[in-house]
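We emphasize that the prediction below concerns an isolated chain of 160 residues; any contacts that depend on oligomerization or on bound cofactors are therefore not represented. The input was used exactly as deposited, without trimming of termini.
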Amino acid sequence: MRDNGGVVDAPAPCTNREERGTRRRLENLTQGSLEGRVFVVCFRLRLGHGHNVSFIAVPFEYSWKRADHFQKHCLRDGDFACATDVDYETRADAFMLGRRRITTVQCRRPQGDIVRYDLLTREFCVLSRGFIVTYFVPRPAVHGYRFNVCYLHMECRRIF
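Result of the prediction step, given as a C-alpha cell string:
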C-alpha cells in the first residue's frame, strides 16, 4: 500500500538482517514457524529522506480485547499514559518483542504461555498462542499477594 506522496509502503516482506533477528526472537517465543500465521504483521514505513523503519507486531487476538484492556489498564487504572488502544498495543508489543532488560523476568507456563515481568518498571505481560493476552502493572491490593514477584510466580505456575 502506498499513499499519494509515496510516504508509506506497507505491508512489505521482512528481509533485512534486523527484521530476520526479530522474526527469530518471535519464533523462539512462540516455539514454531511463523509462516502462514495471521498474527505476524510486517510494516515498512518510509519516514522521508530515505529513512525506513520496519517492525513485526504481535497484536491482541481481537480488536475488542485490545479496546477492553485499553479501557481497563490505561483509562480506568492509569497504568500507562496511552492516547489510543493502538498505542497501548504498541507498548505491549515493544515489551514482549524488545530485548529483555536485566530487570525483566520471563517464564513459560505449563501450557506454553509466556509471562514477562519487569522488576523496575513493574510491567506485566502474557503472550499465548502468539497473541498478547494482557499487559498491565500489577498491584498487591488487587491480586492479593504481598509482593508482585509472588504474583508472578503464581502466574507462571497457572494452568488453564
